[in-house]
Amino acid sequence: MQTETTQRKLIWWGVNIVVLLYAFIPVFWIVSLSLKDDATLNDGRYFPVSPSGENYTAIFNNNDFIRALINSIGICLISTGIAIVLGTMAAYAVARLDFPGKRWVVAVSLLISMFPQIALVTPLFKIETALNLFDTWAGLIIPYVTFALPLAIYTLSAFFREIPWDLEKAARMDGATPYQAFRQVITPLAMPGVFTTGILVFIACWNDFLFAISLTSTSASRTVPAAMSYFTGATTFEKPTGPIAAAAVVITIPIVIFVLFFQRRIVAGLTSGAVKG
Amino acid sequence: MTATPTSAAAQAAEDRIEDESLEIARRRHSEGKRAERKLGLLLVAPAVIVMLAVAAYPILYAFWLSLNRADLRLPDQNEFIWFENYVTVLSSPIWWTAFGVTMFITVISAFLELVLGMLLAVVMHRTIVGRGLVRTSALVPYAIVTVVAAFSWRFAWTQGLGWLATGESAPLTQFWPSIWIIILAEVWKTVPFMALLLMAGLALVPEDLLKAASTDGATAWKRFWMVTVPLIKPAILVALLFRTLDAFRIFDNIFVLTNGANQTSSVSIVAYNNLIRGLNLGIGSTMSVLIFITTGIIAFIFIKAFGAAAPGADQGGRR
Known about the structure:
The complex is a heterodimer of chains A (about 280) and B (about 325). Chain A has about 280 residues and is mainly α.
């Protein structure tokens, strides 16, 4: 019996290692590429022979990259903030209140979550040019908020259904208005769900590439994924591999650390919206 | 209504009293209801307005543009030309090649993601050791920016640079190797998401049912196909629907890996090239509208033919 359990454990460890390799091989590859120096860059080895930080020095001395990093962080934080505020309000209504057109709200958000973003590129390009929003932070925040809202509404309304609503009733009995019940009783209870949704929305914005290359033209509002694809080498027409790899690592590490920290919540957030719906 | 034979007068009096108290209750109730409705509408209004203004209005505008000759390089030749752009696009081999490539990538990726996602879901659900570790690392591909992952694959397959590129071949300069690398990049990134959705379904399968099947002599393989799969069919269909629609709009991976070279463009890449690089808004919008319609058809097929319930579809009745 004892040996059988040990054997099963060993088999499961084997399976787990396969999963770990699957997840990490491409990630470690880009990390080791970013640590290679000019001399060993093209040696085709998986691990760097003589690790160096010269690529990181290069990108952090590159104003376009610094600017793109600031753009990415600013645009994604603002978009997440707006999407969470609007999404929380809408999700509360969808989860808790009875009002005409509720199904319609759900249908619209579902439609948007399935929307092919490319279909919006031209009209947004034209509209934003006309409104002088092209190549500004606002020009990216607007589509980011729009595509984040369905995700926010689904995830949040799933979380809101799990909240003990009797507390709200009690507050209402004590004379609180529906608004007060929302603001003072439910909001604190809902914070964990809101936080999780915030992470998911932030990751979605951070990941965007299509809008970032279509609705920007200078480093004024270009985010890192877009800026990376515009990096140019000093001497050749080739893409500068080292700096791209370093930039890739810089925008990856914070998100990976975040995900590792909040694994349980992210899993709950990703699955609640889709299955319990 | 008149099932009990009482005297007509007594019945009428009773009805009136009942009516009055009912009326009061109803009025109170409807006042509460009205406040609730008002608050509900007020709370959803900003989100709905943003979504309609930024998605619904532009798609109508894209439809209008698709009926016009609108080329930013030839601004004085703009005119309303009905469906001429559609004729141009639908008779263009570039469009149909891209459509075929996109469909191929979509179908193969969705299939591989389902199989691998199910395997990963079972591992995450069943493993008796290191469950947290497995679940956490499985989230890594999900968390990585698509462009970053695409660069990682591109460098890995670049001749004389990458650890996967061996010998004389340069896979990203040939059609079929490029397609398979694009599929690899797409599948690697999204299997974990698929697995999470499926794992949530697996968690809903009652353990007793599996034990009972096991007692009846069903093998693990049989239990999976006869008990688990039928029970999690809704989760499978929702996950598949989402991934199919997502794969159909594939852009980032192809942009970084091949940039559409050697006819590896997806429909989104072709539309982008016409819109932003070619500045031909008429043709580009026509492609956008066609992509939009195709997405609608795919969703319709899933929902009607397979009975996939979209998440939130039954939300109305639940409180």
